């Protein structure tokens, strides 16, 4: 009987190659899966960081909302620190450029109109809202427009305050639980009188994507919940907003695999209002 010489037969070689290729394919699938997990984890981390940064920014601007405004109870002063309060959006007014003498002077001096002074420009009225499908609209009443015109030191044309409030539209927005995934926005308004009543009157800045919910809650000095005051410039609305002493914000963002993550911030406000 003849003995087989050393080495593999063609069949054994093919089987070995097949096994090796299967192992390589399995390794590639594993590596691809790990890469996808890493990408999803990085995306989740970015969303979480953006959500926390957005809430921190909102809290900082709420904290400044007692600067350059009146308490919201005087009929002669239409500028309120809290211009809009609803369950899904919030509007504040503050002298955000107070620390810069040049920016603080203009266009505020030209905007003063019938008042001795005005410390807040239109761009210092800030509305925070979430927009998915935009089933609702965030509106409030404030003195941001007039038929008069004044020119700033830099040659820009503005509409001086005339003591009369107008309905200001901050744009489409969604209440908690409606509109699906969207974006959390910061909305301000331009001082340039040429854009009054046009789409360019609003300046919309995205803060956080994949926002599923944005909720606002408020309490008075006794810890009693304050209902959604809205933005009407009447005695009831002004008194309601002026009573706020604590605000809580909740922002829910989407994560990989259909999961969600909620971030919360709370701030005591209004002591100087």
End-to-end Cα distance:
107 Å
SSE arrangement, N to C: HEEHHEEEEEEEHEE
Parts with pLDDT < 50 across at least 5 consecutive residues: none
Q: β content, as a range?
A: 25-35%
The rounded Rg comes to 28 Å
Number of DSSP helices? Answer: 4
**Major sheet: order of its strands?**
1-2-3-8-9-10-11
Secondary structure: helix percent: 25-40%
Number of strands: 11
Structural class assignment: alpha+beta
Number of domains: 1
Task: Provide structural commentary.
The chain is of the alpha+beta class and 273 residues long. The protein has one domain (45-268). The chain has 4 helices and 11 strands; from the N terminus they run H-E-E-H-H-E-E-E-E-E-E-E-H-E-E. Strands 1-2-3-8-9-10-11 form a 7-stranded antiparallel sheet. A two-stranded antiparallel sheet has the order 4-7. A hairpin with a 5-residue loop joins strand 10 (246-254) and strand 11. The longest helix has 54 residues, at 10-63. It is elongated and about 100 Å long. 33% of the residues are buried.
């Amino acid at each position: 009987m003849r003995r087989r010489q050393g080495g593999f037969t063609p069949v054994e070689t093919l089987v070995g190659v097949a096994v090796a290729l299967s192992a390589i394919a399995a390794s590639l699938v594993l590596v691809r899966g790990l890469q996808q997990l890493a990408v999803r984890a990085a995306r989740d981390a970015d969303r979480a960081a953006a959500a926390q940064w957005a809430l921190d920014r909102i809290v900082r601007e709420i904290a400044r909302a007692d600067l350059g405004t009146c308490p919201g109870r005087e009929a002669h002063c239409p500028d309120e620190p809290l211009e809009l309060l609803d369950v899904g959006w919030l509007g504040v007014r503050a002298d955000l450029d107070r620390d810069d003498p040049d920016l603080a002077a203009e266009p505020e001096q030209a905007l003063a109109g019938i008042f001795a002074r005005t410390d807040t420009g239109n761009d210092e009225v800030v509305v925070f809202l979430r927009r998915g499908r935009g089933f609702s609209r965030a509106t409030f009443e404030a003195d941001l427009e007039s038929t008069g015109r004044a020119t700033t030191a830099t040659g820009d044309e503005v509409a001086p305050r005339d003591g009369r409030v107008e309905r200001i539209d901050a744009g489409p927005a969604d209440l908690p639980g409606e509109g699906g995934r969207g974006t959390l926005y910061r909305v301000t308004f331009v001082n340039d009188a040429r854009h009054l009543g046009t789409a360019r009157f609003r300046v919309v800045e995205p803060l956080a994507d994949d926002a599923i919910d944005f909720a606002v809650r408020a309490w008075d000095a006794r810890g009693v919940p304050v209902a959604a005051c809205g933005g009407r410039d009447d005695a009831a609305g002004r008194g309601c907003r002026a009573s706020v002493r604590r605000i809580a914000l909740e922002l829910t963002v989407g994560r990989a695999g259909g999961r969600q993550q909620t971030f919360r911030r709370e701030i005591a406000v209004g002591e100087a209002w």
